[in-house]
Amino acid sequence: MYYASMSSEAHSPAPDVALITELITVADGLTRHLDGALSNIKGISYTEYRILAALRDPTAEGLTKVELAGVVGFSPSGVTRSLRPMEKLGFVATRPDGRDARKSRVSLTAEGTELVDDATGVIADVVEALPGPATLSDKTRHAVGGALEALARR
What we know:
Elements: H1 2-5, H2 15-42, H3 46-54, E1 63-64, H4 65-72, H5 76-88, E2 92-95, E3 105-108, H6 110-129, H7 138-153
Antiparallel strand pairs: 1-3, 2-3
Helix pairs in contact: 2-6, 4-5
């Protein structure tokens, strides 16, 4: 896909711009695909899954909304908006801090833990069915993973 998008037209973007544009396009497509699978099977979006998964392994006291936002790469207000329905449905619990509302802790409930574990299985099934990753050698997979990590650190 990447090479196909790099035409020899005089106004084609620089290779780095084309690569990043293609990565974003692929990521958007994968997100839509995961959204559809998770929504149809578990009734949650991929965004909600990311929040629940981030809460899966932290310490027993949970994470503050600011910490959670940092883990998933969303704004604190975006995390707060996403948490409200999940709390009403009983997937997460918020423990307020008596002195500072910003320091209230969010954690998974037993129902939330079950949901995120089931949703992880749905994602694994979707990824396994994708045509591309299975064809990559371990060396290529490692190189791509390293490159993506380097881009994420920028």
